[in-house]
Amino acid sequence: MMKNFKRRFSLSVPRIEENEFTEQINQLNIQHTQGKTSNSTFPSPVSPEPATPGAQSPSQLQYRSKAPHRRFSMEVRQGGRDVSKRMSLPMDIRLPPEFLKKLQMEREMESENNSPPCKPLSRMSRRASLSDIGFGKLETYVKLGKLGEGTYATVFKGRSKLTENLVALKEIRLEHEEGAPCTAIREVSLLKNLKHANIVTLHDIIHTERSLTLVFEYLDSDLKQYLDNCGNLMSMNNVKIFMFQLLRGLSYCHKRKILHRDLKPQNLLINDKGELKLADFGLARAKSVPTKTYSNEVVTLWYRPPEVLLGTTEYSTPIDMWGVGCILFEMATGRPMFPGSSVKEELHLVFRIIGTPKEDSWPGISNNDEFRSYMFPEYRPQPLINHVPRLDTEGINMLTALLLYDTRTRVSAEASLRHPYFLSLGENIHSLADSKTHTLNLIHVILLFSLPNPGRGKNRRQSIF
């Protein structure tokens, strides 16, 4: 099992830099050989992050000096400051007494040997210290209830004993022969390098013989639930704010040559502050992997771009931008834009609104064998304002730019952030650091009447799994 796990991980990770995860797999393999697999844990390859976005990595060795509700004495505070200089830890963490005693002994030894205090920890020492504190251990987290279940994973709401903060526990079942699914390995390897206010934070990883548990920050709902809760009548002010946050997180990914490949409302999480974060990177892929061809079995059908529907395996960041356009339409109208039940029906719905593609709108489409085999009628493009009357002129312009057939002209995430559609949000939003987010003023709409439930029949939303 360990051999398969290591091999499958190595195939999915960008090789442009040394990966800590590889060392940990080697350690697990040694433990397994020595017959200690049942007692082994899987130390986190990422440093534990604070509940608020923007925590710095261990290499930056910085820590905020002020922390409300400290849970330790004056002596412990001093020890906490020392260790914070060497590790990036949540500011409200409760350090175990055993760890503090060990830390005090180390300080006394340093004093006796006249060693410089608070020297940076080595990678191995940092990993051992994290394990001493409680990271990488199942008993550190308490399950509070099930949030959802899929083919490979079950998601639980939980609480961290170290911080008393809520967390989301994604428990991935490990098959005896297959090991960890490649989607889980990709999710871990990508998320550990993505530190942004609009991307969900991976706090910890726990490995046992039967499961691999990913510990994420907890967010109250997703965009689908948000739409349902407001009766599919979202304020257009909120549409704009959520749209900007989505593009901001996606631009951060694309700059690092990472494709999400599964954008949909269920994978956009929202907390009680109105902060939107990209989640579920199981289908994500780093373009730095030396290959030009990818699977076309990606992106949930309703948000899948036409070039992928027609079988292309050579694509780049524009694959995500089509989905962004579909999500903008759905936020503004309360219904999915192209709710097809098959590839052919999905293409048919796209062509009926955007128009059947021709050489001028999609160069090379006339030579696509799959497109020609469907023999679609020649639909003329319809004015999008007829379908999204709540969007203003600039919003329609952005939606049009996102739903272009030609991937070379389809607008990018970075360019979208500077679109005139967002001018009303002010210029300051462009100067935010990656670790900061600004939800501005979300408008909370109170419905005074009940609407029929749209969750039945053909337009039923697809599951998160």
CATH architecture of the largest domain: Orthogonal Bundle
Number of domains: 3
Q: Counting H and I runs of at least 4 residues, what is the number of helices? A: 14
CATH topology of the largest domain: Transferase(Phosphotransferase), domain 1
Compute the CA-based radius of gyration. Answer: 24 Å
Protein name: cyclin-dependent kinase
Binding site for ATP: 170
Biased composition (Polar residues): 34-44, 54-63
Family: Belongs to the protein kinase superfamily. CMGC Ser/Thr protein kinase family. CDC2/CDKX subfamily.
Describe this structure in words.
The protein folds into three domains: 2-50 and 136-217, Phosphorylase Kinase, domain 1, CATH 3.30.200; 74-133, no CATH class; 221-459, Transferase(Phosphotransferase), domain 1 (Orthogonal Bundle), CATH 1.10.510.10. Helices cover 33% and strands 11% of the residues. It contains 14 helices and ten strands. It has helices spanning 2-12, 20-33, 74-84, 97-112, 123-133, 182-191, 223-229, 236-255, 306-309, 318-333, 343-354, 369-374, 393-402, 413-417; strands spanning 141-149, 153-160, 166-173, 202-207, 211-217, 221-222, 258-259, 268-270, 276-278, 285-286. The chain has a five-stranded antiparallel β-sheet, covered by helices on one side. It has a three-stranded antiparallel β-sheet with strand order 6-8-9. The chain has a two-stranded antiparallel sheet with strand order 7-10. Strand 8 (268-270) and strand 9 (276-278) form a beta hairpin. The longest helix is centred in the middle third of the chain and has 20 residues, at 236-255. The chain starts with a helix and ends in a 48-residue tail after the last helix.
